[in-house]
Design brief:
Blueprint (H helix, E strand, L loop, with lengths): L4 E2 L3 E3 L7 E10 L15 E11 L5 E5 L4 E5 L4 E2 L1 E2 L7 E6 L3 E11 L7 E5 L2 E2 L2 E2 L3 E5 L20 H10 L6
Keywords: Plasmid
């Protein structure tokens, strides 16, 4: 069974984009964009997270991470979360050189009861090509990974097992 990444995990890209990796991290519940709340998010709880892309290759990559490349699902049934596309800071047409990073801060909102489980899918465009989507799972109640290893390489009792247990229990307690 394939498991999603946990907030904080790095996901390595394969083949065409070897050396490029991406990570979803720094989840903050109650974080409102500097420009304020959007009227469409009335009655919802804002949260933010960061997406960081790192280039470990010997060549540069042209990146695009905008609202079309991000999907957010909240709650145990995976309801769509409101994505504040104008309050977020995106990566648009940015040339990422070797040994450099680029980060985006994304704001979204969902009902408070759905914030126990958040799934974030990133399908960024690199060199004008769509990449495979990768998913991260987490919330305010799930500890963030240190980002040193990928979940797929984790063996035995680790953060991936804790997340699986959390999801099986319906997002109550780990």
């Amino acid at each position: 069974m394939l498991r999603p990444n946990v907030f904080g995990d790095w996901q390595e890209y394969d083949e065409d984009f070897t050396g490029l990796r991406v990570r979803v991290h720094s989840f903050k519940k109650g974080d409102v964009p500097k420009r304020g709340r959007d009227d469409d998010a009335k009655g919802l709880m804002y949260f933010s997270f960061q997406v960081t892309v790192e280039n470990r290759a010997e060549e540069y990559f042209d990146l695009c991470l905008h609202h079309h490349e991000v999907q957010i699902r909240a709650g145990k049934d995976g309801h769509s979360a409101y994505l504040d596309e104008y309050g977020s800071a995106w990566i648009r047409n940015f040339r990422l050189y070797p040994l450099r990073r680029a980060s985006a801060t994304i704001y979204a909102a969902a009902p408070v009861s759905h914030l126990k489980t958040i799934d974030i899918q990133i399908a960024m465009r690199v060199d004008r090509e769509d990449t495979d989507p990768y998913v991260w799972v987490g919330s305010d109640g799930i500890p963030e990974s240190t980002g040193r290893t990928a979940v797929s390489k984790t063996r035995g009792k680790g953060i991936a097992d804790e997340v699986s247990k959390f999801l099986e229990q319906g997002g109550t307690d780990v």
